[in-house]
Amino acid sequence: MNNRLLHTPEGVRDIYGKEYAKKLAIEQKLQQAIHCFGYEDIQTPSIEFFDVFSKEIGTTPSKELYKFFDKEGNTLVLRPDFTPSIARCAAKYFMEEKVPLRFSYNGNTFTNTSNLQGKLKEVTQMGAELIGDPSVEADAEVISMVIEALKSAGLTRFQVTIGEVDYFRGLCEEAGLDEDTEKELRSCISGKNFFAAQELLEQKQIPEPYHSILLKLADMFENIESLEDAKALVKNERSLQAIARLEKLKERLEQYGVAEYISFDLGMLSKYQYYTGVVFKAYTYGIGDAVVKGGRYDNLLRKFGKNAAAIGFVIVIDDLLEALSRQKVNIDIPASGKTVYYRAGDEADYLAKLSEVITLRKEGIPTVLSPEITENEEADQ
Fold it and tell me: Can you give the pLDDT at residue 115?
């Protein structure tokens, strides 16, 4: 037999036994926390048209998509990101809806990353989207929901870091950067690549004081007290309004009682170009990448024909499980049930044990009906 048949491709894996039971238990806890905020489940297909994730949408780069063709010649992709799918669905089925929409979802996403990055190419994500509410109160609701969900999973040591894309964009406009330079600089800053940002600004001959201010963003990890300093660095209305929104958001999060889990980082940006305002990530001990990523995307639904503001997030279940494991957080899983043995070849004993098993299963007790293992079988094992 070809041993290759027993292995999975690079970047994907099998999950079974207690590990899978723990994964299901965590998903259930997270889902319950999200449902407590009034969000309803929605399911979108794993396969979408390529255009849903095109460059114009501002999502995953084309080279990281799994692309293929159907019999009609249409280019299809495996879903790399839930948000554009939810936006498409909202525009299709709720075009005229004026009341805010609250969706939650759970499923797998697929990203064709390099093997050298050491990341899974298929991951399970759970998240939520609040569509049709542009307010700072909506921002506070979604971020508070993230915190409650992580707490329900058993995390106690984590931080949700919040940034504001409009502060960066306003600063770029004030400095006179063109759109391509802004996108390239955004990529450098989102990756915390200080030296690449410095090289780009020097190459584009960005004058002072903007050269220094933009470089500071690439290396900024500040708390809320720094917002007054950040306000003093800019003159444009877009950046000033971004700071004012963060100040109001801080106040709302304090009212939710979750301020202890919050920090602010004006240099935190996202690789997704569709984010327009508040962005956030949740970090915890034991894993380098964020376990939650989210933000506001007020212009995305227009790409699908619906003019509606929106904000949402995804929890990367695989990363969360790894963090819980490294922090030695106990995950309660349902009892494995019981096994009832019958004597092989003894019809009366089989029927008696079968009746017992049927009763136990009706009571909701997981029960296996199995023949007794003989001494010879035990010796063979």
Answer: 65
3-state SS assignment for residue 341? strand
> 3-state DSSP call for residue 295?
strand
Please give the DSSP secondary-structure letter assigned to residue 46. Answer: S
- Reduced to 3 states, what is the DSSP secondary structure of residue 32? helix
Residue type at 67 in one-letter notation:
K
**Measured between alpha carbons, how far is 135 from 139 in angstroms, rounded to an integer?**
7
What is the structure's pLDDT at 48? 96
Dihedral pair phi/psi, residue 79, rounded to 5° = -55, 120
56: left (phi over 0), alpha (psi -120 to 50) or beta: alpha
Each residue's pLDDT tens digit, 99-137? 999 999 999 999 998 765 668 999 999 999 999 999 999
Quote the strand ranges of the chain, DSSP E: 40-41, 47-49, 67-69, 75-78, 101-110, 122-131, 158-164, 262-264, 278-284, 292-296, 310-316, 338-342, 367-371
Please tell me what DSSP assigns to residue 63. Answer: G
Cα dist from 354 to 92, 363, 367, 368, whole Å:
51, 14, 10, 10
Nearest alpha carbon to residue 156 among 66, 277, 282: 282
Give Cα 323 distance to the centre of its chain: 15
Q: Directed axis angle between helix 317-326 and helix 136-153, to 10°? A: 50
At residue 176, φ and ψ (nearest 5 deg) are 85, 25
- Single out the residue of 269, 252, 125 nearest to residue 193, CA to CA: 269
27: three-class secondary structure by DSSP: helix
Assess contact for 294 and 314: CB atoms under 8 A: yes
> Could you tell me if 189 and 267 are in contact, meaning their C-beta atoms sit under 8 angstroms apart?
yes
Query: Which 3 state secondary structure label does DSSP give 262?
Result: strand
Bridge partners (DSSP) of residue 370 are: 341
From residue 233, alpha-carbon distances to 190, 192, 194, 210, 265 in Å are 20, 20, 19, 9, 15
Spell out the alpha helix ranges (H) of 69-177.
82-93, 136-153, 165-175
Q: Which of 106, 55, 105, 104 is nearest to 77 (CA)?
A: 55
